[in-house]
Please model this.
Amino acid sequence: MAGTGRTGFTDAALVRRLAPWIGPATEAPVGFLDQLSAWLRWTDAQPLFAALQEPIATPPCAPDEDPSPDSARADSQAVLSLLTRALTDDAPWREAPRPQRRSLSSGWIKPSAAAAPDAVAFDFPTYRRHYVAQQQQMEDRIAPLRARLRRVLALQSPELARLAALDAVTERLLGEPERRLLANLPTLLEKRFARLRAEAEVAEHATSDAAAPPWQPHFQQELDGLLQAELDLRWQPIAGLLAALPAPAPSDPLA
Model:
């Protein structure tokens, strides 16, 4: 689109959400290419060169796999819908609170008598389990879908087959560093949880109100937003492969 600025690394929603938690940077920002160079070694140039220059072997589709672009698009939409719903539907704090049927060992903390009926608090391990489970589900669903899209692309044209090969190399080289970085997010969440709890305790001691400030619902909203931002980040390669697929054929209005 004309007039649109180029999107930078710090424009990612995940980075923007984490920035207030981490605080302002004390050093000069590192450029994207400099950051990328820290992930790649000189030996990684060979598979990248091969993907760009050597003949491309078309990967076979599974016998029961529909190789059509329309089927790939439909599967992608189904996976995205499933992952998006799971971010909220699987959250334990959205269940109807039944403190008499839960124990401290399962992660529930019985609310005080002054708390609202739906104000159920959790210890952090509950949030960690939810976040890690969602991360694992993203990994389990997106990685096979990405491979499927590459197989479909490879059948369309030699140019798209080369794009698919380049994506496969990129995933192999950058996938592990990305997973290591994303694995740090629960630790950052734990620090955020501790900070909000400490601030709430200070506020509670400074006021005469019997009820503690509702800081956990605020934390839950932040956790939801962070998960959505992570899903958006993980989905970017899928969006790129989908954009490369041939456009759907226009339907015949007389058919």
